[in-house]
Design a protein that fits this description.
heterodimer, A: ABC transporter involved in vitamin B12 uptake, BtuC, 12 helices, B: globular
Chain lengths: 291, 331
């Protein structure tokens, strides 16, 4: 492989764009795993579900996938609260969340994936939108709009999430529930209700992330699997539940993956995030911006 | 029951199973039975780490694949008899298990589970990029048509898998009743307290990951001969991971009976569903059963039986009395 400056710049820029999108996918996990200690290993499956909803609406009515995903967030929120309620009653209350809770979410992941396979088959699906196709050329830099648009909206999503978590009462309560449930009770706030809301929000972000995903690349049901490791790697690297940390870690993973696939070949890229994960866990388990 | 006696009983049961399959005559039963037995080994192996120590391994497929690819690599070098391949595969994946143990020594709970998932992807990436064993294109292994005393080759493979399963169950039972098993249980119940009381938790965890990994690799060793065409995406698939978790959890994780029960029930159900409905639907069934069982019956089928007997301690005595009192044959 001939090393060229243009190639390097292009790889870094596309890494940053993809990284912003990774941050949107990870945001939900940072909420559930990072803050609530709920190991929602099935999160990528909800992302794929979001992709398919965007796909169905896009092919039947021709609506914009991002607009669709924003419209269906309440449904995802509701789904999230229902799942949390089941999780709470069956596992958290009984104190069995570690082993069986994991198996529960793994089962959900599997059910979602196989159901989608049964209904849609394993063909790759894609959406139509005006910004899919054209590419901006800035000097030697190529910026495909199909990546740029989701990245920008991802950054908005991350900013909104950070604002909600740090400025609103519910957001602060969510941050507090991770630290001291009893103190929250003393303030006459029901910690379970707050957790339910937080988990609902976490699943709601999956709807948006799903739309971004299907804009960036064609989607088939098992695409979610490669995101499991990436998402948890970013979450751990970012310091478990820190939104700015998540963004930084996501950009980092995006850039390194992009460089790897440019200079070594795309088949090596999946190992990057997992390598990151194993390294982080071994060297600095608290992550970059750990609490 | 003493362990050598137990092994003899297992061998006798295995002999009956094999004889029964032989009398049925149809090779299909061997093909289906092989898969069920393979799951018996995988779920028993998963349970050594997951059930006894309480460490969730999502990477079962990786160990299975290490075993399968060890076979492919050796076969390409020089074809060898399968029992020998099983031993090599066991060693190879045992070493991988030990390595995973070292990497994840400090990780607990969810972090360990995610790390095993990560390991599976790293190994898959390595395999995809390893041209000697076929890379992403996959590898063909031509299965001999027949082998000396058994007739068709699948009967031979079935017998090997049967023996591995018996070995795995005996090892699991041996662990359960030894100091090792007690040590594992202390890790599961409270690792900090165990460490504080002088239990060598780190060493025990390494032993558990090694045994568990080695058994999974042994289950994978004959697989290339069974399937004929090995591809990374299928052998590293989530199907193995979910089955080897679902089966012990559905059966019950505290003893060797659970994984055996779960694997035989769920494995047979899947075989029936594959033939009668479709192979995608059978995975859906596994998913629903797993979710249903962890919610409703957290201790699996064994737990349900225990609960039933505990609530009705008279159940055994009662039945006997009724039978004795009844004048005629009871319905």
């Amino acid at each position: 492989m001939i090393f060229s400056f243009d190639l390097l710049i292009n790889a870094i820029v596309s890494g940053i764009l993809i990284g912003a999108f990774y941050a949107a996918v990870t945001a939900g996990v940072s909420l559930s795993f990072g803050i609530l200690d709920i190991v929602n290993i099935g999160h990528p499956a909800f992302v794929i579900l979001g992709s398919y909803i965007a796909y169905i609406v896009n092919t039947t009515f021709g609506f914009d996938p991002i607009v669709t995903s924003i419209v269906v967030t309440p449904a995802f929120y509701l789904l999230g609260t229902i799942i949390y309620q089941i999780y709470y009653v069956s596992f958290e209350k009984r104190g069995q969340e570690s082993l069986r809770g994991l198996a529960f979410f793994f089962g959900l992941l599997f059910i979602t994936e196989v159901s989608l396979v049964l209904y849609f088959g394993v063909d790759y699906r894609y959406v139509q939108a005006p910004y899919i196709g054209p590419t901006w050329h800035v000097g030697s830099l190529d910026i495909p709009l199909r990546v740029l648009v989701p990245s920008v909206v991802s950054l908005l999503l991350i900013a909104a999430l950070q604002l909600v978590l740090t400025r609103s009462f519910v957001g602060r309560a969510i941050m507090a529930v991770a630290q001291d449930q009893l103190a929250l009770k003393l303030l006459a706030v029901d910690p379970i209700r707050i957790k339910r809301m937080a988990f609902g929000i976490s699943i709601a972000t999956a709807s948006l992330a799903g739309a971004f995903l299907i804009i960036i690349q064609p989607v088939e049901p098992s695409v979610g699997r490669e995101y499991i490791g990436r998402v948890f790697a970013i979450c751990v690297l970012g310091g478990m539940g820190s939104v700015p940390g998540t963004l930084i870690a996501a950009l980092l993973v995006g850039i390194v993956e992009s460089l790897t696939s440019t200079f070594y070949g795309p088949s090596w890229a999946p190992a990057v995030s997992f390598g990151f994960l194993l390294l982080t866990l071994a060297v600095r388990p608290a992550g970059l911006l750990g609490r | 029951m003493r362990s050598d006696l137990f092994l003899l009983v297992c061998l006798a049961v295995g002999g009956v199973v094999f004889a029964a399959a032989m009398t049925l005559g149809n090779d299909y039963y061997f093909f289906a039975g092989y898969v069920v037995l393979q799951y018996v080994v995988l779920s028993t192996a998963w349970n050594v780490l997951g059930g006894y120590c309480g460490y969730v391994n999502f990477g079962s497929a990786a160990f299975f694949a290490v075993g399968a690819y060890a076979t492919v690599a050796i076969h390409r070098f020089h074809p060898m008899p399968i029992p020998f391949l099983v031993a090599i595969a066991g060693i190879a994946s045992g070493v991988v298990g030990l390595g995973m143990g070292y990497l994840t020594l400090r990780l607990r709970g969810a972090f360990f589970a995610i790390a095993t998932l990560a390991l599976a992807v790293v190994l898959e990436t390595l395999t995809v990029n390893w041209d000697y064993v076929g890379g992403s294109r996959g590898a063909y292994i031509v299965r001999p048509e027949a082998i000396a005393p058994f007739g068709s080759y699948i009967r031979y493979l079935f017998l090997i898998m049967l023996l591995i399963a018996i070995g795995a169950i005996t090892i699991a039972r041996l662990i359960e009743r030894s100091r090792l098993g007690l040590g594992f249980a202390t890790i599961r119940d409270d690792e900090l307290a165990a460490e504080a009381s002088g239990v060598p938790t780190l060493r025990l965890k390494l032993i558990a990951t090694t045994i568990s990994g080695a058994l999974m690799g042994m289950a994978g060793a004959p697989f290339p001969y069974y399937i004929g065409f090995l591809q990374p995406s299928s052998v590293f698939g989530l199907d193995y991971a979910i089955n080897s978790i679902a089966m012990p959890l559905i059966g019950g994780t505290t003893s060797w009976v659970g994984p055996l029960l779960g694997a035989v029930l769920l494995g047979s159900l899947q075989q029936i569903a594959t033939v009668t409905i479709s192979s995608a639907v059978n995975l859906l069934i596994v998913g629903f059963l797993l979710v249903g069982f962890v919610i409703v019956a957290p201790n699996g089928i064994i737990g349900l039986i225990h609960k039933y007997v505990q609530h009705r301690p008279d159940i055994l005595i009662g039945r006997r009395r009724i039978a004795a009192d009844a004048p005629g044959p009871t319905p």
